[in-house]
Amino acid sequence: MSRSKRRAVVADGLTYVILIVATLLALVPVAWLFLTSLEPDVSSGTGRSSPRSPLGLTLANYNDVLVNSSFSQNLLNSLLVCVASVVAALALGFLAAYGLSRYRVRGGSDIAFWILSNRMLPPISVVVPLYLLLSSVNGLDKYWSLIAVYTAFSAPYAVWLMRGFLLDIPRELDQAALVDGCSPLGVLRHVILPLCAPALLASGVFLFVPAWSEFLFAFMLTSANTKTLPVAIASLITDQGIRWGDMTAAGSLLILPLVVAFFFVQKHLVRGLTFGALK
Amino acid sequence: MASGIDRALGGARERTAARGGHGRRRRRLYPYLLLAPVILVLLAVNIYPLISSLGLSLTDYNLANAGVPARFVGLGNFQQALGDAEFLKSLLTTGEFVGVSITVEFVLGFGLALLLSRPVRGQGFFRTALVVPMIISPLIVGLLWRFMYNYDVGLINTVLAATHLPRLNLLGNPGTALLAVIITDVWQWTPLVFLLLFSGLQGLPEEPFEAARIDGASAVQTLRYLTVPLLRPIIAIALILRGMDALREYDKIYAMTGGGPGSATETISYYIYRQGFVNLNLGYAAALSYILLAIVIVLVTALVRTQLRFDEAER
User: Fold this and answer.
1) pLDDT tens column, B197-210
2) In chain B, what are the helix, strand and coil shares in percent, each to the nearest 5?
3) Do A215 and B50 touch (CB under 8 A)?
C-alpha cells in the first residue's frame, strides 16, 4: 500500500474511532439513567456501588413515583399547561407571522426583532416582579397565570418559526384566492392554513419541548395545586440527599416524550433551533 | 401603484372603490390586527413586569418585612450591588462558566462536524445519536450528572474504582465544582453546536473546495481561508445562541450544586434567585436583575448588529 493510501486509511479509522467514542459519551449517561430507574434504589445509604447488574430489574421506582406519590398529578399539570400554552402560542404566532410575511408593515422587521428579543430576556429578571404582581392579584399557583406565562414564553419562537414557513408560501396563492373573491380571512382559513398544517405540527413540537422542561417560572409561580413535573422532580433534592431511584424514574418519565418528539421532528431540527432563521 | 395584480384585479378594484372603498381602510388595519394579540401578550407578561421591576429596584422592598412599607432608596440598591463582593464574584463565575463552556463546545462541535463531513458511513446514525443530549431537560441533565459524579454510587466513580483509580469528588470540592458543571454543560450543548455547524458544512458549495484542492491548498489552509469564512454566519448564530443561554443558566446550578460549595458555582441568575427568593430581598434582587438585563441587551445588540443581518437570513 502506498504511503498516502495508508495515511488515508489511518485517517478514516481515526475518524470512526472518534465518532464512536463521541457517540458513546453522548448515549451512555442517558442509557444509565434508564437502567438505574429499573434497578432497586441504591441511595438507601448503604454505599453499595456497582448499579450495573442486569439482573434484578424492577419497576419499584416507577411504582413509587406514579402510584405512591403525587407525581402523576404533576405530570397532568405539566401536560395541561404545556398543551394549552403551545396551542395558544401557535395561534398567536401564526396570525402575527402571517401579518409580517404578507403585509408591508411599517417597522415590520423591527417588530419582528423585538418579538424575538423577548425570548432573550433572562427569566430571573422577569420572574422577580412577576411573582409580586401575580401574588397581588391572587394569581400564584393558578393554571391561568402559568399558561399565560408559558404562552408568552413560547410566542416569540412561534412567530419566527411560522414566519419562516410562511415566507416559503408564494404570495401569488393569496392573490389568486383574493381575485376569486375570497375574503382575506377566507384566504387564511381555506388556502394558507391547510398548507401550513404540517408546519404547525412541527412547530408545535418545537414549542412543546422547552415548555415541558421549563423549570424556573414553574418553580417560582406554582405550589401544591399546579406544580409541574420538573418542579416535582426538583423537590426530590433534600438536605438528606436525593432518592436516586425516584429521581431516575421520574426523570425518565419526564424525558420520554421528548425523546419520542425528537424522532418525529429530526428533519426540521436545525430550522427549529435557529428560530427559523436557518433551514 | 398599479402592479400587475392590480391590473388583473381590474374591475374588482373599481367596483369596490365605487362602493366607497370600505375595504381599503380595513385592509390597512389587517396586519396590525394580526400582530396585536401576540404583542399584547408579550407586553403583559414580559414588559409590564420589567417596568414594574424598575420601580421595585428603587425600593428596599423585603418580603420578610411584610408589615413595614418599603422605602424609596433611589439608586441605593445599584450602589450596593457595585460593592457587593458576592455579586461581583457571581459575575466572575458566570463569565468563567460562559467563556469556557462555549469555547469548548465550539471546538468540540466544530471538530465533530468536520469529522462527520468526511465520507463516512452511517452519517445519519451518528448525526442522530450525537444530538440526543441536547433534547434532555436541563434540570434532568443536572440531576443525572450529579448522580454520575456521586462519590459512592455514581457511574464515574464506579468506573474509576473498578480500574483501581482513586475516586473523585468533583462537585463537593470548591476548586473543581465549576469545572464539573462546565463538563455537564459541554456534554449537553456540544451537540447543538455540532448540529448547526454540520448543517452549515453540508450546505456549502463544492466549487471553492474543488478549486482549493486543485491549487494544492493544505487541509489547514482550506479550513482557515475557506471553510471558516464561509461558515461565519452560522458560527455567529451558534455562539450567540449558546452565549445567551449560558449567561442565564439556572436549572443546572440548582440541580447540581445550589451555587456551592460555598459560592463556587454561583452564577448571576442563581445569586439573584437567592437574594430574591431565599433572602426575600426583592427590591435588591430587582436591581440586580436589571443589571443582568442590561448586560444581556448590550451583548445581544453588539453581537447581532455586527454579525448578522436578519433580512439576509431569509434565503
Assistant:
1) 998 898 888 888 88
2) 75, 0, 25
3) no
B48-72 pLDDT, tens digit per residue, is 999 999 999 998 888 887 777 778 8
DSSP string, A57-112: ---HHHHHHHTSSTHHHHHHHHHHHHHHHHHHHHHHHHHHHHHHHHS--TTHHHHH
**Whether the predicted pLDDT of B25 surpasses 60:** yes
User: Hey, are the CB atoms on A98 and B132 less than 8 Å from each other?
Assistant: no
**Residue A237 pairs with which residues in a beta bridge?**
A242
Q: Which element (helix H / strand E) includes A124?
A: helix A123-136
Burial label for B294, CB within 10 Å (0-12, 13-18, 19+), is: exposed
Q: What angle do CA B21, B23, B27 make, to 5 degrees?
A: 130
Closest partner residue to B129 (CB to CB) among A26, A103, A124 is: A26
Using the predicted structure, report yes or no on whether residue B314 has a pLDDT greater than 60.
no
Considering only residues B7 and B45, tell me which one the structure prediction assigns the higher pLDDT. B45
Return contacts of B170-179, CB within 8 angstroms, 24+ apart. Answer: B171/B146, B171/B256, B171/B257, B171/B261, B172/B261, B173/B261, B174/B260, B174/B261, B174/B262, B174/B264, B175/B264, B177/B257, B177/B260, B177/B261, B177/B264, B177/B265, B178/B93, B178/B96, B178/B97, B178/B264, B178/B265
Residues 59-98 of B with CB under 8 A from A: none
CA separation, residue A165 to residues A113, A159, A175, A191, B313 (Å): 17, 10, 18, 14, 13
Q: With 50 as the cut, is the pLDDT of residue B189 above it? A: yes
Which of B197, B45, B80 is closest to B131 using CA atoms? B197
Q: Report CA-CA distances (Å) from B248 to A119, A211, B242, B267, B272.
A: 12, 16, 10, 8, 11
Residue B287 at interface with chain A, using a CB cutoff of 8 Å = no
Distance (Å, rounded) from C-alpha B126 to C-alpha B98?
27
- Beta-bridge partners for B72: B59
pLDDT of residue A140: 93
Alpha carbons within 13 angstroms on the beta-carbon side of residue A17 total: 6
Distance of CA B82 to the CA centre of its chain: 25
A129 vs B133, B139, B286: nearest CB: B286
Tell whether the model's pLDDT for residue B13 goes beyond 70.
no
Distance CA A155, CA A93 (A): 6
| Higher pLDDT pick, B12 / B79 | B79
- Indicate if the pLDDT at residue B104 is higher than 70: yes
Q: Which residue of A has its CA nearest to B268?
A: A124
